[in-house]
Amino acid sequence: MKIALLSEKYTPDIGGLAISTERLARLLASSGHSVRVFAPTGNLPPSEKRTLPSGGVSVTRFGAHKRVDDTLVDWFEALVAEHRREPFDILHAYFLPQAGFVAAYAGKYLNVPSVVSIRGNDIERAAFDPSKFSHVMYALQNASAVTTNTSELARKAKAFVEREIFLIPNGIDTERFKPMERNEPLAEMLFTTKATKGHEGKRKEERSFVIGFVGELREKKGMRALLSGYAQMTKTRPASLLIVGEVREGEDKKAFEEFRTSNPEYRIIVTGAVPHKDMPAYYGLMDIFVHPSLRDGMPNAVLEAMACGVPVVATPVGGVLDVLKDGNNGVAVNVNDAEMLAEKILELLDDSEKRSRLEKNARETIIEKFTPEKELEANLLVYQKILEEKQT
């Protein structure tokens, strides 16, 4: 098959959407299919287009415009032009408002089956934006098939349109993401040169516990609960807070810096962007992984931490409901409950036997249910179904 994959983000862009889109593209290419990715970028002038190979996938990036409608026109026309040069069998979009709309519209225009995949904010936020609502609804109503990665998002999609929603969870490479020995040179670099204000230039000889967070830290990801919970627990048990990623610019960054300035005694390390291939070493530094999100899709970071055998403390929102079983393979905490977050972290730090049990069960969960092979197989079954329907 020749597959056009549309996404608003693609590596080296930051975030779960970019990671998930690249993962699917590479899975499809590795199974013998021809994959062409189309994704806008702010790194090129508007309308300028470049196509380069990347990991067996042909990736076309084109410059985004300030006006979204101009970007969508370029996206549609690039897709149509490539189809006329060498026809696609399937158009598959990740995220509804832009990619999903373009794929569904182009699919009907070109008489090519289209798939749109719901990833999280496209239903949970964009659908409430009047400027995006019509694009969301068009994609849901006109795509040949709709997929999503969580049961919760499937239920929300059916509140908009009554149709079959295929559930395809994210897959994690458990050969790459696996338990590993602590990388001492990396720890030395992070906890001495990237220490918090008040600790800069100092060498901390004793090994303290590390509480980890992965992703772009912002309010939606539970930033206030994370910082407050960390502040409460560290009064009882000193620990470092390792944020692998960045803090979102704007109000979130301002609030974060105010907290850090007001509490110079806390050891908070922000790594900045980290290549995805290097992530296992960072998970290996963590004693506990926390994900106190207010709402979410299927967070790759939670699955990766579990695959790496790191005990997970997370809020039961979105896709976390599908993967984390409280007390069995992780620990659930209430949304926006800093006190409970601190309490559960401390309980785990004090109970090495429970940590070991959660680590083992978490990895087994990922190996059993959340593999790339299952993700690829499920997508191919959807493609086969809509291609057969087109022929009848």
Brief descriptors of the model:
eight-stranded mixed sheet; six-stranded parallel sheet; 19% strand; 2 domains; 392 residues; Rossmann fold; 15 helices
Write the SSE topology.
Layout: E1 2-7, H1 16-30, E2 34-46, E3 49-54, E4 57-63, H2 68-85, E5 90-94, H3 96-110, E6 114-118, H4 121-124, H5 130-142, E7 145-148, H6 151-158, E8 165-167, H7 184-193, E9 209-214, H8 223-234, E10 239-244, H9 251-262, E11 267-270, H10 279-283, E12 288-291, H11 300-307, E13 312-314, H12 320-323, E14 331-332, H13 338-349, H14 352-369, H15 372-391
Strand content: 15-25%
| Rg for CA atoms | 22 Å
Q: Can you identify the CATH class of the largest domain?
A: Alpha Beta
The largest pleated sheet is described as: 8 strands, mixed
Question: How would you characterize this protein structure?
Answer:
The protein has about 400 residues and is α/β, with parallel strands linked by helices. The chain folds into 2 domains: about 1-170 and about 370-390, 3-Layer(aba) Sandwich (Rossmann fold), CATH 3.40.50.2000; about 185-370, 3-Layer(aba) Sandwich (Rossmann fold), CATH 3.40.50.2000. The chain is built from 15 helices and 14 strands. The strands form 2 sheets. Strands 3-4-2-1-5-6-7-8 form an 8-stranded mixed sheet, with helices on both faces. Helix 2 runs parallel beside helix 3 (about 95-110), helix 3 (about 95-110) crosses helix 5 (about 130-140) and helix 8 crosses helix 13 (about 340-350). It is globular and about 65 Å long.
